[in-house]
Design brief:
Layout lengths: L2 H31 L5 H21 L3 H4 L2 H14 L2 H13 L3 H29 L1
Helix pairs in contact: 1-2, 1-4, 2-4, 2-6, 5-6
């Protein structure tokens, strides 16, 4: 099998699993915490940032790594399907348009700042554990 087709299939499989995991986490949190704030998307994006940082620390960040099956399956596919910028954007816009501007800004800020911090933490943890 062509290596590029193999990588595409790994990304597709990871994306399918990641999308299902995102839906499961989001629905569970909506049941637990309600829907007045997009807690599910926030938790998904922050946990995805931690895991992406961990994968970068574990697998490395080079051109060779980016073309590997592990990176394609786990980071591009699984975590790409699990995390979502489109949901973050739409939910923040909805909060803003409904007059909940502080909640919209908190959602974007928490995802961005905490996401960066958790990606760095994941990288640091795997660097220490490797």
């Amino acid at each position: 099998m062509n290596a590029n087709i193999g990588l595409l299939l790994m990304m597709a499989a990871g994306g399918a699993l990641g999308g299902m995991a995102r839906m499961a986490v989001s629905q569970r949190l909506a049941r637990l915490a309600g829907t007045s704030f997009p807690w599910g998307t926030l938790v998904v994006n922050l946990s995805g940032a931690l895991l992406a940082g961990g994968m970068a620390g574990w697998l490395g960040m080079s051109r060779d790594t980016a073309m590997s099956g592990g990176w394609s399956l786990l980071v591009v596919g699984l975590l790409g399907g699990y995390t979502t910028v489109s949901s973050l954007s739409l939910q923040s816009l909805t909060l803003w348009q409904s007059g909940r501007r502080a909640a919209a800004l908190a959602n974007v800020s928490a995802t961005t700042i905490a996401g960066l911090a958790l990606a760095a933490l994941g990288w640091w943890l795997t660097g220490r554990l490797a």
